[in-house]
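pipeline/complex-builder :: batch 7 item 3
reading input block
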Amino acid sequence: GAVVSQHPSWVICKSGTSVKIECRSLDFQATTMFWYRQFPKQSLMLMATSNEGSKATYEQGVEKDKFLINHASLTLSTLTVTSAHPEDSSFYICSAPWESTDTQYFGPGTRLTVL
Amino acid sequence: AQSVAQPEDQVNVAEGNPLTVKCTYSVSGNPYLFWYVQYPNRGLQFLLKYITGDNLVKGSYGFEAEFNKSQTSFHLKKPSALVSDSALYFCAVRGNAGNNRKLIWGLGTSLAVNP
């Protein structure tokens, strides 16, 4: 299957700082990518849809000024958690649909811990 | 509204026995159905999908799923479970209307295969 990478795989930061997470599709181009958040032993919560060359589409209840998304190229989307607080600690996962297969492929996830 | 139900939070099965993880869905139009598996602290791995064609779909690691339109179900099955199959399994659905690639997720089922 297709490969999607995420970096970093884990990060610990102090409250008030910003953290950037990268999501790359390694062997296909993705005009759209998805960012999810997952709490322990829970399902995926879609945060936003990242669109190459245009603004991201945020789900209801997700603060767009707090979770900045940039889809700079057909293989890279970034999620920046601004002014992080302990309640932002979570597992963040990105996915990219490989259009020719109608299938989403997921990155390995980023564990964010805010102290 | 589109929805996915995984009625069992946890399924326990003995190694070597057949396993079934249940999924039912509600979507307008013809559904695109997916199963993913998640190992601890990892992203999701694609297992199999149904879009069209044969109702019985075979996927990775010996898993298969049967699309049943009348029962709106897409249960995941494996004839003989392995301890290494122990993981969290997610069912997802996407309607085929328009250009919306968002997936609707079930809450997940934790599979425990006992030696």
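note: Chain A has a mean pLDDT of 93.
queue -> next item
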